[in-house]
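Protocol step 4 of 6: structure prediction from sequence.
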Amino acid sequence: MNEIADSLRSFITGMPKAEVHLHLEGAIPIETLYGFARRAGSRSGVESVEDLRARLAYKDFGHFIEMWTWKNTFIEGYEDFEIMAYEVLRSLSEENIRYVEAHYSPGDYHMQRLKTGGITDNILAGVERARADFGIRCELIIDLVRDHGPDIGMIRLNEATPYLNKGIVAVGIGGSEQEFPPGAYEEVYREARDRGFHVTAHAGEAAGPESILEAVEKLDVERIGHGVRAHEDPEVVALLRARAIPLEMCVISNVRTGVVRSVAEHPIRSYYDGGLVVTVNSDDPVMFNTTLTDEYLALAGPLGFTLDEIKQVALNGLRTSFLDPEEKRRMLDEFEAEMETL
């Protein structure tokens, strides 16, 4: 039995993968984050890597947001973002993740007086170094952070616009979904689409299916981040199926934050069987103590996905990406060829 488990892990680790729902700040390798925390000295209250890992534990979704904000205070200068991007992508490349669309939240660093342009420039420098060293490609999704409101969101959109198709491909909104419904961003998203940005939004995670409906109907999103609670309203499920709107699903994340009680109860199995387009992602892998490989192993375990189904979900990650069609086709051919040889 252990040989089968080892063989499956080896296959999934070696399988070429794309990740379309990852937060850079939630994927910083723990050793890198500890280095930032140590630099902060006594202010951090962190004495070891193990201590930091324990401090990142959380009780519920609200506490998770609190811990997210706390760890971001250790990111103090622009050069930290280059280090962060490079180390995140180095870590992901070890799982044969070849393409990433990574959220980043420049608005979270206003207390450090760090500007969107400087943050973005340094992330892109890390992205380019990682591509040269590890062959991993990364495009950015700027998180407008719904908690900051649509007026600030429009400012962030203006700041991101010079980077459109020069490192940034899309806009999204994360943050406290249950307190800030997506509809308030209708004008910002309309402007983003008019400028040529792709659009996605976190919905149906901390809030129910009405959040998904609002994101689809008012924001006209191309993908939904999470969407785990769609099953609470069959009409929302039918809408997602009819419009073939992909779901950026993060199974272990949803268990860790208490959105679902266990992996076995996660609705991704019923969504896949019901004809919805699903992808699998790691969300904030360091904070959730997971990897993309672990996410796929969860599909193969309690959720009963076959190897062929796992391959299709993996290809969905690339199919639903915001890559230009020609580049997407080329990478899909590469992925499919490599999967055949594994």
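Step 5 (inspection) to follow. The chain has a mean pLDDT of 94.
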